[in-house]
Design goal:
heterodimer, A: 316 residues, mainly beta, seven-stranded antiparallel sheet, B: 527 residues, 2 helices
């Protein structure tokens, strides 16, 4: 296996304005639209159709539906199936309110053809959202396919929202390696039952209960040199591994949120490929003995090759 | 180098294998012999065959010659040596007497007690399966088996309590074997007695490991419990277990350290102590805190701390759940070994276990698994209780013609981790979970045998599956006589039974031919 490069444009911005609803929606539209295969008007905003290189689709909705409380006004972001029959929990992105209640500065957003990540820039926790279509196992290699033919997949998308919707205090993909609350995964026409489950990125770690908070600290998988492992960004819920994130990988050590790193990859022909990656999540577990947060898995998103502009188009 | 660590690339050695051994009736000797045979077959060096021995002490001296005359029979037995096949009794006589006893070997008392003991040693050496030597300073006779190896272990020796004192047990026979590779270590396999009332017979394993100049030795005892043990081995590792009691298990590994994959070159070997191996994949702290021993570029350190290993990594899905692909199959990855040089430091990932995979699901220990054209045996498995990641450690026991990795200088082709042959991350033909209708099946069955009753009933292991219809059923008989077994006679043998006619249920199948005898508890494999 290896990184599943979409080969499609990747857009990344750290200057999504939050001063007004119109500006935030406009900035998000400017970054999502070039990556989406379709855009249509929706109440208070737009709905964008994202399509993976495998041909699977989903939609992400960015709307101003008048969500507010006594402190904030919000933009609502929701993931749905392409036919709009199934929806995941929405996230509320707070607008800057000014005064002592001003919660945010600017937002950052990362988009490729089939994934969308948005969060307050430089902060984990509240006001973030992520969704995407998972990559199907490649036809000719990897542990997910060699056992036989891949089942026919017509729909395979996920979403992870900060805790503005239903489950407060839950973890999400901005602050942890799993989402324990407001997440969705839709597979072949049905949302899976999320009750009591989490949507997780799969770390490579010791086999004990690494999430146990009251024992010794979970042992982090790292080479003797101190370097961590970089592995495929697989997504699982309960017993099922559903697929792999596009243009992403996991690192077994915690990293600084929103930092970037240049890494060299090798393509299938053996050619070196210079790439730049963004640390999307960071979370310190509490208490620190547990393997929650991102102690065991940091999500890296591809931003660009060093020789290109922020718009990358890396074929693999 | 690819950005992503290809966690599917498995280092395959040139030699590997497995065997089964029954602990009864030869107890520890059979286990030692089987383990030695398997290790030598996998390229280990047989450095020494060690004879069993015992001592008899005479702290107060020994009678000496008074002189005499006449005939003398068997009286005043001084030493008795008892083997499974004979008993050797030794009685003294006075010089001048004529020994006529036919139930003993007689020796003349000497002018001093030392002379008498020297005479006793001479006669013992001449007449028994033991050489007897006398330590003059300590008045101690050492009995050493003339047969090297474990076979004389647990013979008995007794001495006249008026003069001689002995523990009564002859033990310590066995072998010294040395592994190969960049992190060599040695192990003494000895039959001896453990701690208990009465003292249980055990296989003592003394491991000497560590970088040159900092080597140390650590001893573990393998309990003798169930009737059958399984041994797996390659040039760098071995494991032995009965699959019943975790205390009756032990393993040692020297991982492959491919620096091209980011590992740091270092001496690394570790011993998985009893009670650790079979029920978990982190081995430093069994159910009662049993330790393991790690040597990572330093003297061996023995401690019990399962966060610091040794152990292997696995992919973690939702806590407590196994991880299946969209095909409903578990994932297999290389067995990354993680351990700490001591309890006071953090563990690191030091290499990959040769010939091993980690499966993202629970399996029956001892069960077989087919993937990438190779045959594996499950040597450890843990479920998802207490939030653990369900996972199993599989040891390749047969390449079935697939190439090895060439990483051990054996000239094999390099495993690139791709699909198909040699691709360790590609379970092209995995054994499905029991009952899923794919792959091979192993277990124990009961065969009912009357001319009109062709029933085979499942007893344990994989359950029968409709896909078995049309295949043959191979049954191993232990110590039984059966006409289907080509070897005939008694003893362990394997035979092919009639074709499976139908699978009536997951626990019952029928065959196309009569089963005209009956026997229970026969392990089967199919197809």
């Amino acid at each position: 296996m290896g990184v599943r490069y979409s080969g499609k444009p990747i857009l990344y911005s750290t200057t999504i304005r939050a001063d007004t609803s119109a500006n935030m929606r406009a900035d998000l539209d400017a970054i999502i639209s070039p990556a989406a295969v379709a855009r249509a008007s929706a109440t208070g905003g737009f709905k964008y159709t994202l399509q993976s290189p495998d041909g699977l689709q989903m939609k992400v909705w960015v709307q101003d539906l008048g969500d507010n409380d006594e402190f904030h006004n919000y933009i609502r972001v929701t993931a749905t199936s392409a036919d709009e029959e199934r929806a995941g929990p929405f996230a509320l992105l707070s607008l800057a309110q000014g005064g002592s209640f001003q919660p945010v500065g600017t937002y950052e957003a990362w988009v490729n053809c089939c994934q969308f990540f948005v969060s307050v820039f430089g902060a984990a926790g509240a006001y973030n959202f992520a969704c995407g279509v998972l990559a199907l196992p490649s036809a000719d290699s990897g542990p997910c396919t060699a056992t036989g033919s891949v089942p026919e997949v017509t729909e395979l998308w996920w979403s992870s929202a900060s805790d503005n919707d239903t489950v407060h205090g839950a973890l999400n993909f901005r602050e942890a390696r799993y989402d324990s609350g407001n997440w969705a995964l839709s597979y072949n026409g049905a949302l899976i039952d999320t009750t009591g489950l989490a949507l997780g990125m799969m770390p490579l770690c010791e086999s004990l209960n690494v999430d146990y908070a009251y024992g010794s600290p979970a042992a982090i998988a790292r080479y003797t040199s101190g370097v961590g492992f970089r592995i495929d960004a697989l997504i699982a819920a309960a017993s099922q591994i559903y697929g792999q994130m596009w243009d992403a990988h996991l690192y077994s050590l915690p990293e600084t949120l929103d930092s970037t790193v240049d890494l060299t990859d090798t393509d299938a022909a053996g050619n070196s490929m210079d790439t730049t990656w963004l640390v999307w999540n960071n979370g310190v577990p509490s208490p620190p003995t547990a393997g929650t947060g991102t102690v065991l898995a940091t999500l890296y998103l591809l931003t660009a090759g060093p020789a290109t502009e922020s718009l990358a188009n890396i074929a693999y | 180098m690819p950005l992503i660590d290809n966690i599917g690339v498995v280092p395959y050695s040139a030699k590997k294998g497995s065997s089964k051994v029954r602990s009864q009736p030869m107890f520890a000797s059979a286990i030692i012999e089987a383990l030695k045979t398997q290790l030598v077959a996998c390229g280990w060096t047989l450095a020494e065959a060690i004879p069993a021995s015992a001592t008899i002490e005479y702290p107060l001296g020994f009678p000496f010659s008074l002189g005499g005359s006449g005939l003398v029979g068997c009286g005043g037995t001084t030493v008795i040596i008892t083997t499974p096949f004979a008993q050797f009794r030794y009685c003294p006589y006075q010089p001048g007497q004529t020994p006529v006893g036919i139930g003993c070997f007689q020796f003349a008392l000497g002018a001093t007690g030392i002379d008498s003991l020297a005479n006793l040693c001479t006669v013992i050496s001449a007449t028994s399966p033991y050489n007897a030597t006398l330590n003059l300073a300590g008045n101690v006779i050492t009995l050493t088996s003339k047969i090297v190896g474990p076979f004389s272990n647990f013979d008995l020796v007794s001495a006249d309590g008026r003069f001689g004192v002995t523990g009564g047990n002859i033990d310590g026979g066995g072998y010294t074997l040395e592994s190969v590779g960049s992190s060599p270590y040695s192990v003494n396999l000895l039959g001896t007695f453990g701690i208990g009332i009465p003292p249980p017979m055990v296989v003592q394993m003394n491991f000497t490991l560590g970088p040159s100049g900092t080597q140390g030795t650590v001893s573990y005892n393998l309990g003798i419990g169930a009737s059958e043990y399984t041994v797996v081995a390659n040039p760098y590792s071995f494991a032995i277990f009965d699959g019943v009691d975790p205390f009756n298990s032990l393993a040692a590994f020297a991982p492959c350290v491919p620096t091209s994959e980011g590992f740091t070159e270092a001496y690394c070997a570790f011993v998985v102590g009893p009670a650790n191996l079979t029920d978990q994949l982190m081995w430093g702290g069994g159910p009662e805190g049993q330790p393991s021993t790690n040597s990572l570029d330093a003297s061996p350190a023995t401690f019990a701390d399962n966060r610091r290993g040794p152990g292997v990594l696995c992919l973690r899905a939702t806590p407590g759940f196994p991880a299946f692909t969209l095909n409903g199959q578990p994932v297999v990855i290389a067995a990354y070994a993680m351990l700490a040089a001591s309890r006071s430091v953090e563990p690191t990932v030091v290499g990959k276990l040769w010939d091993c995979l980690v499966l993202s699901n629970t399996m029956v220990v001892g069960g077989q698994f087919e993937t990438g054209g190779r045959t594996f045996l499950c040597i450890a498995s843990q479920d998802g209780t207490s939030g653990k990641s369900p996972a199993s450690l599989l040891f390749c026991i047969d390449d079935n013609g697939q190439p090895n990795s060439g990483l051990d200088g054996s000239g094999g082709s390099t495993d690139t981790g791709g699909s198909g042959a040699g691709g360790g991350d590609s379970p092209s033909n995995p054994t499905a979970p029991p009952g899923s209708g794919n792959g091979s099946f192993t277990g124990t069955c009961t065969c009912s045998g009357s001319p009109n009753n062709h029933t085979v009933s499942w007893a344990s292991g994989d359950k029968f599956d409709p896909s078995m219809a049309g295949q043959t059923l191979t049954i191993t008989l232990f110590g039984l006589v059966h006409p289907w077994v080509s070897a005939g006679g008694s003893g362990d043998a394997t035979g092919t039974l009639p074709v499976i006619a139908s699978v009536v249920s997951p626990t019952v199948l029928t065959t196309t031919e009569d089963l005209n005898s009956s026997f229970d508890g026969a392990p089967y494999t199919s197809p």
